[in-house]
Batch of 2 targets.
Target 1
Amino acid sequence: MSRTIPARRGRPVAAPLPQRKNSLSLRLKRISRAWQLYVLLTPAIIYILVFKYWPMYGVQIAFKNYNPVDGFTDSPWVGLTHFIRFVNSYQFGQVVGNTLWIAVLGLLLAFPIPIILALLVNQLQSERFKKFTQTVLYSPAFISTVVVVGIMFVVLSPRSGLVNNAIQLGGGEPIFFMGSAEWFRPIYVISDVWQNAGFSMIVYLAALAAIDPALHDAAKVDGASKLQRIRHIDLPGIMPVVTILFILAIGNLLNVGFEKALLMQTPLNISTSEIIQTYVYHAGLQQAQFSYSAAIGLFNSLLNLALLLVFNTIARRANQATLW
Amino acid sequence: MSLTTNPRATENPSRPVGQVRPKRTLRDKYGDRAFNIAATAVLLLSILAVVYPLYFIVIASISDPNAVYEGKVWLFPSGVTTEGYERIFADSRIWNGLGNTVIYTVLGTAVSVSTILCGAYALSRKDMPGRKILMLLFVITMFFDGGLITKYLVVRDLGMLDTVWAVVLPGAVGVWNLIIARSFFEHTIPNELREAAQMDGATDFKFFFKMVLPLSKPLIMLMIMVHVVAQWNSFFDALIFLNDDSKYPLQLVLRNILIQSDVSSTGTTGGDIESYAAAQRIAELTKYAMIVVSSLPLMIALPFMQKHFTKGAMIGAVK
């Protein structure tokens, strides 16, 4: 603390200091020498303290009866009351079930499709067609969720929508897609693929581009077909990226797409479209049951965290067994 | 290994190597051709599936609403009209929302990008004591989150409800972006450069602003674009934190017109059915036009942004 201008001494700071004991004064010297770095980091630290850790501290209201006067700290404790109420409520099975349905359907379709697309695009001969395909397929990612849902409403409209016009042309009866509980899940997942598959594909394309072309040349000399090369070179080559993204997708399983579900909700499809997070929004922010909905939110976060840990462990085991 | 690599192969890995024609059976050759045809067909269908709905919306937005209603519009607009667009441009809510969105986007991007760049640079410096613990502080927030309700209460307690800051600050720093920026700095700014600069008496501030930032243009472009797109398209923070509709961003205005009105009008009965139906058709026409107008800015910018986003995916894939 006594000397605070060491950065101007013009000595290379990064040079590892000789094998001296990390005495307190030495450590303080190192810290004070880096003060400008801490200044650079300060806004980001303040941000996460205020907008990430303060809300995290506030999660305790899930075990309390929150009232604005007492705030997070002084509201009275009630234990697990809110959790018990949620688990026993008639919505519990419905919202948890709906959430899992969308999440699992989404994972089954939305996860493999970008990989398949990337493998196909990577095999294209013409560079120009490759670029074109890439650009077109990922352009919907830049359309906002609001507009995508808006597109659904007009294109699927029972009166004048494109899809129903086609159905009627084929002699069918018009379907009120956005107002039917059975159609919510398919529309949700298909629109998700439509919007995001192209964008997710890019990461895999980058990973494919990093594969040593010599491997492909050697395989060609050995007479391997394209399908065989995809199977034995491309797929193993991108497997690490696939695994990481899969674990991340699992970790976010119950979070993704909440905004879209909220936008797609109509009174008519609520029985399938109400998921945990939209329920938190309705109960918490629209009906001001802060503690109850914070408890549900916490339930969701913990479930997510558990899924992440489980799948991370599985992946680690599997990677030890199979050596790509 | 290096003996077998042909210089042309590195230029274009997917093209067969010039002279060294591998001997193959006929079956394999036809197999590859069939694969090429199938792959191209699948991709063409995917392109069609992405493009056609968008194309339809564009032609529907300039077609006579009755023709759209009767299902006569498939490939070309019919009975061209600009009424939908005229209605939008006369709608003050749209203009007001657009103005708000521009303000939120500029301010939000400035705050986010500067915070991320400064923070990520500090975290990229291996000689900063406490670096690991500080990084952990950020990473934890990726896996555990306080949730919507407590975030709302914090913003409320800060007195930010119904202010610009409620839209700009709560989502300002994405940890994922911070990690991308950090690994960019780690990989592109050589240690030797910093040591040399320090020899010459440059402070960390000076080095960061005079050397690191000018060398990081691709990263800065990427970060700006990521945040512009995200802020331009976001509506949820505005939905929960803003009550005053004169402060609504464009996306929230769109949501109220495109989505909410549809839901509420499905239950409408009574009144003059003919005029109601006509009004309904005009409303649909306006919706098509609105989708076009609100998505156009980003779609036009897309070719320009593409190479930066692709680069970003690469940086992201490294770490």
Target 2
Amino acid sequence: MNKLFKNISIGFESIKSNFTRVFLTSIGLTIGIFTVSIVTAAVSSIDKEFAKSIQSIGNDKIYVGRMPWSFEFDWWNYRNRPEIKEEQLEYINQYSEFITQSSMKQNYWTRASYENKASWLQMNGVYPNYGEMLTGTKVVNGRFFSENEWKLQRRVIIVGGSVREGFFEGKNPLGKKIRLGGVSFEIIGELEKTGSFTPTGSLDQVIIMPSTTFQRILTRWTWNEFVLQTSPDNINKAKEEVRLIMRVARKLKPEQEDNFAVNSADAFTKQFNQMKIAIAGMGLLVTGISLIVSGIGIMNVMFVSVRERTKEIGLRKAMGATNTDILIQFLSEAIAIAIIGGIAGIMLIRSTLYFLGTAIASFDFGGIEASSIDLQMDLLLTFYTFLVCVFLGLLAGFVPARTAANLNPIDALRHE
Amino acid sequence: MTKSRKEIIGIKSVSKIYNLGNTVVKALDNVSLSIFENDFISIMGPSGSGKSTLMNIIGCLDVPTKGSYKFNDEKISQMKDSQLADIRNQKIGFVFQTFNLLPKLNALQNVEVPLVYSNLNRYKRTEKAKEALKIVGLSNRINHKPNELSGGQRQRVAIARALVNKPSIILADEPTGNLDSKSGSEILNFFDDLHKAGNTLIIVTHEKSVAKRAKRRIEIFDGKITLDE
């Protein structure tokens, strides 16, 4: 054991005397480690964000609207589709087997103001039972509006979780009145803060009101959807069923294409996974290339090192070093170079994440909380980085180290 | 040369043959040689005579093509690399013409090199290395790097390194070749002292004056021992 440690430390010692060379060699690895970590961190934070979004979409919800949730957004085609009309929901309620609850959801972005503060918020006009269909959030303060309030078109609203901070400096917003497009509304409920972002906007930035009130005050520039609830197991059957009912409701002839879209979380997941694979694939490619290049770099430097120290190898062998001793010495050197690159990479990531973190914190992403984009960088990742470095060092250092170990002591001693 | 002394090295009809393309070079041709405890031997010969090859074989850096080589009654000719390394580490101390000190290590660390490979812990290593440096009279120079030492001092560090594992023999290859005459004779006096202290020494040289200091002189020419007195 004494010998083993000493062999390793001899390998490390030689790093010290050639630090510039070692550092330059390890930069390739630094970049590789940096990319792989950034990609991993990015993918895992996107993943986390996405899981939250999926949660707020709900795996038991179907959303019927004019536009499909898709990254290949064919705006010119979809914009001419006829609006989703409330009476079409009657068809679904009447004929559907799988839908257990349904609500109209009308959307409109409007300028909301309270005293001297103003912000753009998404208004939703919904049915009273929408309170039971909320996913990913719930009313944590106050209450949802009642059937009566809906019938009477009362100007009552339930506000998203970020309204409290935005308008009321963290104080209880219940009973306060805010103005939406010039009309005053009373806050009767508050939603739990989620920090998540869905295809239809952030849940923290919504203002929910009775659809009757919504229609009384705003009739233009709204877009409508149906929010339908089923059980998660039936979601695909329900989607197909809803599609057929909607075709009937919209009086489409058999040869006509759908002029509406039936959306659910799983379609979104597919799209998302493709995007994730693309990001991860690019990252891996860059990482792979930089790892190979840096491996070759390390191997090259190791060959130089072996050549430079041929005489030393001869001497050590004459003094009783075995082939294994020399092998370990040079492998340690190679691994040390790799680890130096890795450590530099980790430090680079750490500082990047730090600056990125402060940059995000000082930048308002339309209400998304900075903390929700925490690019994570944990111990496990550091540990994997370390493993990769050791492995790369072994791989790149093996041939040079073996060359050194197999040197004939007589020739090595004579080497000048 | 009394027979009562223990035989350390027994070489019997050893040949070393190199094949260089089509030509076959007999570096050693049927050489037999016995070396006993507390011998002080000089090996002389012109370059190409085979003295380096003999040296390498005695030093277990090389194995003979033919013949048998016994070291302390152990058959070297059949040993594996790692066993040879062990013999070199424990039983043989090398002194080279060019000192071969590692320039980045100080005197103490240089002397410690063989101890590293005998698997001693750090305290034992330091202790033994200091002891060896004391023998060569360099206790006050242990932290000096080779480039801060004179030629004679460097060679003494190298001798300390050769002595540190208390080897059975010390092999010196032209130990005075790179030294001025004053330092050279200092080193040779030192070898005399080592011999008196009971060590076994072999000095390879081409200088008559150096060879004369030895108690037993061997001359080698064309791979054959031509003189042994």
